[in-house]
Design a protein that fits this description.
This protein is an alpha/beta fold. It is built from twelve helices and 13 strands. The protein has two domains: 18-242, 3-Layer(aba) Sandwich (Aspartate Aminotransferase, domain 2); 246-366, Alpha-Beta Complex (Aspartate Aminotransferase, domain 1), CATH 3.90.1150. The model has no long low-confidence stretch (mean pLDDT 96). It holds the Pfam family DegT_DnrJ_EryC1.
Length: 372
């Protein structure tokens, strides 16, 4: 039990500090709050994180995915290969453009999409592959980009949980035709709400800028049909403050994870695996609990250790996907996905943890013992 002066350790802890508040107030006082110079400066600095790719800021990670699929002309009749073990936004973006999500299984070690399953799922209708860098671990992009090249498919990276993750030195968001990031408050950095699209091709970047703003570059000279998914300058100013702190926070997450992995010894707990060449940035520190997960979570909560399951229901089992598939008699064989959904628990790993927080987490996990 936590003692009276020990507050529970939250699973996530978004930072809205004085600098973020001052940045937002500065923009509010300027009177110019909609997309403007702050957004442009945010895009320019974010490019440093993705090998200098073109960056287009939008109002959420979901909008980033949606717009990128639109810009790649993916739509009705197309299939996009995506892991079911992800946040619903990955597949929602596919359905929002009228394409079909083809769900594939994950690698049980990294929780990211299994490249062999990706290749097996390709059909003449496949237009793109959407790997998800789940929990901050990069998907096997070397193999996935090779498969995509062989079959002439676009790769759309869902890097919404993986700011500054990398594989063999290449940052996520710099592998495929395009990558997408989220700046939701619980992500490794935020802009209140927000998202970023990172692309290699300048023409694609221009199309994305048009799509985010009613199809206009020049006011009232609409070139195409677009939406309004612009980021505000208030959000961008907060995002710039956070981006400047991201490196330090990421190092702290990696150090926190290393401590947890070194000290967690409970026999029925599997600590995160890092693939060779991968830079895992621990958006989540996710263990597998072999045994009664609900009981384990209740014990952790009782010990004041925040915990959460991402995600208890794989996307293919969510109603908007499950029901049409049932009607069409379509089933997915995703044993590793089902197993992960039943076993995973994420523990606090955020950069504000103290050494005593880390010790409490380890003690609570190890106290789960052998008889889960
Ligand atoms: C958060 C997240 C998104 C969506 O980002 P929002 O900013 O919340 O719209 C998409 N994919 C994954 C994997 C995410 O974790």
């Amino acid at each position: 039990m936590p003692s009276v002066n020990e507050q529970p350790i939250p699973a996530a802890r978004p930072v809205i500090g004085e600098e973020e508040i001052e940045a937002a107030v500065r923009v509010l006082r300027s009177g110019r709050v909609v997309q403007g110079p702050e957004v442009a400066a945010f895009e320019e600095s974010f490019a440093d994180l993705v090998d200098g790719r073109h960056c287009v800021a939008v109002n959420s990670g979901t909008s980033a995915l949606h717009l990128l699929l639109m810009a790649l002309n993916i739509g009705p009749g197309d299939e996009v290969v995506v892991p079911s073990f992800s946040f619903a936004a990955s597949a929602n973006a596919i359905r929002l453009v009228g394409a079909d999500a083809v769900f594939v299984d994950i690698d049980p070690d990294t929780f990211c999409v299994d490249p062999a399953a990706v290749e097996a799922a390709i059909t003449p209708r496949t237009a793109a592959i959407m790997p998800v860098h789940l929990y901050g671990h990069p998907a096997a992009m070397d193999r996935i980009t090779a498969i995509a090249d062989k079959h002439k498919l676009a790769v759309v990276e869902d890097a919404c949980q993986a700011h500054a993750a990398a594989l063999n030195g290449t940052p996520v968001g710099a592998f495929g035709a395009g990558g997408t990031f989220s700046f939701y408050p619980t992500k490794n950095m935020h802009s209140l709400e927000g998202g970023m699209i990172t692309v290699a091709d300048a023409e694609l970047a221009r199309t994305l800028r048009l799509l985010r703003n009613q199809g206009m570059e020049q006011r009232y000279a609409n070139e195409i049909v677009g939406a309004n998914v612009r980021m505000t300058d208030v959000a961008a100013a907060v995002g710039r403050v956070q981006l400047a702190k991201l490196n330090g926070w990421t190092e702290q997450r990696i150090a926190n994870a290393a401590y947890l992995t070194e000290h967690i010894t409970a026999p029925n707990v599997v600590t995160p695996v890092v693939a060779e060449g991968a830079r895992h940035i621990y958006h989540q520190y996710t263990i597998r609990v072999r045994g009664d997960r609900e009981a384990a979570m209740a014990k952790l909560t009782e010990a004041g250790v925040g915990n959460a399951v991402y995600y208890p229901t794989p996307i293919h089992r969510l109603k908007p996907y499950w029901e049409p598939d049932q009607k069409a008699g379509r089933t997915w064989d995703l044993p590793e996905t089902e197993k992960a959904a039943a076993e995973v628990v994420s523990l606090p790993v955020h950069p504000l943890l103290t050494q005593s927080d880390l010790e409490r987490i380890v003690t609570a996990v190890n106290a789960l013992g052998e008889n889960l």
